[in-house]
Specification:
By secondary structure, this protein is an alpha+beta fold. Helices cover 39% and strands 18% of the residues. The protein has 23 helices and 22 strands. The strands form six sheets. It has a nine-stranded mixed β-sheet with strand order 5-4-3-6-9-11-10-12-15, sandwiched between helices. It is elongated.
């Protein structure tokens, strides 16, 4: 029986057993943990007696730290020390006895499996299954003799194979297919925890393909700080392993992840255990990546993630001491001459904090460094003013020359949102040709429509679409869909621009004190025809701001200089591109002074910001229609209107 047939069989159990007892959206609460339990039970069956014997000896010797010894006895990264196998429970008729024995059976699992069951909250379902008298029926279904969830084949009486064994990889495929189906059933939540496999495969290719020929027979660490059900990690593992084998190398790959949602955390750990990767499952940690980093001392070779966007992280921020008290070095860097350069974003959206977290875990001393691929929505491209967290993160990444490319994905590629999404690709070992540049790729039109919508998802990346995106990325050439810019093209100076305060009835030859200006303003409206009012007198030897409107004046025989009082109503801000010819002064001469010759800017107000506008770079104006066609439409509408009026008049007659 194929993996798909087994998935269909398990999917069918939900309808056979749970219908009329659970709403469809809650089937997963029972089926996913039961699938895990049945597979683990089948794997452990041959060594059950060995485990029980080891358990008895350890207890007799008074040894309390038993985990490693029991793992060795089981020959797996998990075990069960209860006296029961799952098949021992199906013959029990009394529901309360069945419940007691089933709960004892669950209690016998190793701590790593216990944690999975706890995060699934599966024990909460047992009383309901017993009360509705369906627990025994559920167990019977999972023990159906026509389906083999064991890694060993089922034999006929003559020793011939009746059912093939289900290896770890195939079991992982079965489990992932169930996850996918349940995620699609609950499509309003799917995008929070489940990234479409086509997008994941593309991300894996983007971080591995550029360095495929440099992969060695060594150890590589792969990390996802918002790992969800673990799909990105497992696809990355498969892709890297395949590329290594293609180069004649044998890479040892270790997976690390952190997830804050309990159910998806349980799914991730369970999936790895079912695939025989119990050691990797131990590297998946529960909790908030932002306020409770599980890997503060780790650096990783490859990182990929789809962090939550548009989701508040206010509670995390409060646990971290608030913006003013932030001490976490992941989010406070030394950059641009500022030892406390803040990367802390608005508390209403923490997606870019996950990117800063990944960058902080880049390997600094390895030949390949680190490569990152992360999904973001459009706000990460431009949200945040100069000097604010989002802009600072963009500035920090771009000025350190870590950003390789940003790829715009098709709309409606995710399950629960139709908004624009983008893949950010980073590396701290850019190829020579990429140094100092960023590539933008518009892949929004490269997709294949789905025959049936899955929530908001109405399209997918076919193999040829993924290939097309990767080819454009690797080619690093200017095309209609690929644009290449120097890093500085995305930066700008934000500055405050002022103009003189003008009031009617003032004496242009004297300097006014601040109190006098206040009185004059209270009595009169500003008038652009009036001369400027002097705000401040600088005595000889006292420096004045030379960039403001100044001129010399004699007061009581002493040389002084004066400067204009700025009009608060005319205060404005401007963005001068970093690449502006002539710098800020050149920008002012070109964009400001022709329209306000008396304007000046405050040097103390200047801040550096970064933003990326896909719309500006890939805007393709629609050709104007011919005047004849427009007039034809107008005449047709006029005729239609006259006809309707005639009908109305005829009806009135």
């Amino acid at each position: 029986m194929s993996s798909l047939n087994i998935s269909n069989f398990i999917w069918g159990i939900a309808d056979d057993v749970l219908r009329d007892h659970y709403v469809r959206g809650k089937y997963r609460d029972v089926i996913l943990p039961m699938t895990v339990i049945r597979r683990l039970d089948a794997v452990l069956e041959p060594t059950k007696e060995d485990v029980l014997g080891m358990k008895a000896r350890l207890d007799g010797a008074g040894i309390t730290n038993q985990d490693q010894a029991l793992r060795q006895a089981a020959g797996e990264a998990f075990y069960n020390t209860s006296p029961f196998r799952l098949r021992d429970l199906r013959a029990i008729g009394r529901q309360q006895q069945l419940r007691a024995n089933f709960e004892a059976y669950l209690d016998g699992f190793s701590p790593n499996v216990q944690e999975i069951l706890e995060k699934f909250r599966f024990r909460n379902e047992v009383p309901r299954l017993v009360e509705d008298d369906i627990l025994g029926f559920l167990i019977e279904k999972f023990l159906d003799s026509s389906v083999n969830l064991s890694p060993r084949p089922v034999l006929n009486g003559d020793g011939s194979e009746r059912l093939p064994g289900l290896d770890n990889h195939s079991m992982g495929t079965v489990f992932e297919e169930l996850i996918r189906r349940f995620s699609e059933e609950n499509n309003e939540e799917a995008g929070e925890h489940f990234t479409p496999r086509d997008v994941v495969e593309m991300m894996a290719h983007l971080i591995f393909k550029p360095v495929a020929e440099q992969v060695q027979s060594t150890t590589y660490l792969v990390y996802d700080g918002a790992c969800g059900t673990g799909g990105m990690l497992t696809v990355a593992e498969d892709t890297l392993g395949e590329l290594a084998r293609g180069q004649g190398k044998k890479a040892e790959i270790h997976l690390y992840g952190q997830e804050v949602n309990p159910e998806t955390y349980a799914i991730c750990k369970a999936d790895l255990i079912l695939k025989g990767e119990g050691v990797e499952a131990d590297n998946i940690q529960y909790g908030s990546t932002l306020s409770g980093d599980a890997f503060p001392a780790h650096e990783f070779d490859f990182m990929l993630s789809n962090p939550p966007y548009g989701k508040s992280w206010k509670s995390d921020l409060e646990r971290m001491g608030g913006k003013a008290g932030m001490q976490d070095t992941r989010f406070v860097a030394a950059h641009g001459g500022d030892p406390d350069f803040s990367l802390v974003t608005r508390s209403s959206d923490g997606q870019m904090m996950f990117l800063a977290n990944m960058v902080s875990k880049m390997k600094r001393d390895s030949a390949l460094g680190s490569r990152i691929a992360e999904v973001h929505n459009g706000s990460s491209l431009f949200t945040g003013d100069a000097g604010q967290g989002e802009s600072n993160i963009r500035r920090w990444i771009i000025e350190n020359d870590w950003l390789e490319a940003i790829i715009a994905l098709p709309l409606n590629i995710f399950y629960n949102t139709g908004i624009a999404t983008y893949i950010w690709v980073l590396s701290n070992r850019k190829a020579a040709a990429r140094r100092g540049y960023v590539q933008l790729i518009d892949a929004s039109e490269w997709y294949r429509p789905l025959r049936k919508n899955l929530g908001n998802k109405n399209c997918e990346l076919a193999a040829e679409d993924i290939g097309r995106i990767c080819d454009a990325f690797l080619a690093f050439e200017e095309t209609a869909q690929s644009k290449i810019f120097p890093n500085e093209a995305f930066g700008y100076y934000k500055l405050n621009v002022a103009r003189p305060l003008r009031l009617p009835g003032i004496d242009p030859d004297r300097a006014y004190k601040a109190s006098e200006i206040k009185q004059l303003r209270a009595r009169a409206e500003p008038s652009p025809e009036a001369p400027p009012v002097i705000r401040k007198i600088h005595r000889s030897g006292v420096a004045a701001d030379p960039l403001r409107g100044l001129f010399p004046l004699q007061i009581e025989g002493e040389a002084v200089v004066v400067e204009y009082a700025p009009d608060p109503d005319l205060k404005d801000s401007e963005q001068a591109p970093l690449l502006e010819e002539g710098g800020i002064e050149g920008f002012l001469r070109r964009e400001v002074l022709p329209y306000a010759a008396d304007a000046w800017y405050d040097p103390g107000s200047v801040k550096v910001g970064y933003e990326i506008s896909f719309t500006r770079y890939f805007y393709r104006p629609q050709p104007l229609r011919a005047p004849e066609a427009i007039w034809a439409d107008i005449r047709a509408l006029e005729q239609e209107a006259e006809g309707l009026l005639a009908e109305i008049r005829g009806g009135a007659d």
